[in-house]
Backbone:
């Protein structure tokens, strides 16, 4: 991968006129290390890296919903980017899912934020108390209705849920657990940005023991896919 990408960079040295202004968003550095290396990113501060050659920056938000919301709203100016891509590993609720596969999360929700009532658990964003968010959250879900690049249209689509303990509750209407994807999508929707959430499957929830998680394969797979997109964008091939 490294030699291939460095060859592409030499090939594209005169092709830096792309209008792309890209922000990559990741909870942890480990999930984004390939981008830092291959794009020769330099550390701006503890949360932000930037490519020295292209208009591409990387935001490390920290894990979880709160950290992601706070970081995206305070560590960068979201308004300046014309494409925002969230990357990271995720657990699947489907035991037939192939570990290492990558998916496009087209909707996400805050799965364990809600009210315990006599009728059971009611998600907070399905209650009348949060009616003011109806333009962003539809029946509890945040949908990606943005015009993200066609390059990513072939990725398998799935529904995500952002929770801290996915084993603690049942989520029959969702496919994967993203931990902070709903926070990412909410901020992007609020600012009317073009965005996509791409996740690599590291484990099967309730089946895969922590020692058997495959973390590196999904990171490698989504990194290579996005680097291919960047290369083609810079070369005006898409």
Residues:
């Amino acid at each position: 991968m490294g030699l291939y990408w460095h060859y592409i960079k030499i090939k594209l040295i005169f092709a830096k006129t792309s209008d792309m202004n890209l922000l990559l968003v990741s909870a942890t550095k480990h999930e984004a290390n390939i981008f830092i290396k291959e794009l020769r990113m330099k550390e701006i501060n503890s949360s932000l890296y930037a490519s020295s050659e292209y208009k591409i920056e990387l935001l490390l938000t920290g894990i979880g919903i709160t950290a992601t919301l706070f970081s995206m709203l305070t560590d960068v100016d979201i308004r300046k980017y014309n494409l925002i891509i969230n990357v990271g590993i995720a657990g699947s609720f489907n035991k037939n899912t192939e570990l290492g596969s990558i998916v496009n999360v087209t909707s996400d929700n805050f799965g364990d934020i809600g009210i315990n009532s006599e009728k059971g658990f009611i998600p907070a964003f399905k209650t009348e108390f949060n009616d003011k968010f109806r333009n962003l959250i539809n029946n509890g879900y945040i949908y990606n209705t943005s015009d993200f690049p066609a390059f990513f249209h072939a990725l398998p689509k799935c529904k995500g849920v952002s929770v801290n303990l996915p084993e603690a509750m049942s989520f029959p209407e969702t496919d994967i657990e993203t931990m902070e994807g709903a926070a990412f999508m909410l901020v992007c929707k609020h600012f009317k940005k073009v965005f996509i959430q791409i996740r690599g499957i590291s484990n099967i929830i309730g089946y895969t023991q922590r020692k058997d998680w495959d973390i590196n394969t999904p990171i490698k797979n989504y990194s290579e896919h996005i680097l291919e997109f960047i290369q083609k964008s810079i070369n005006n091939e898409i």
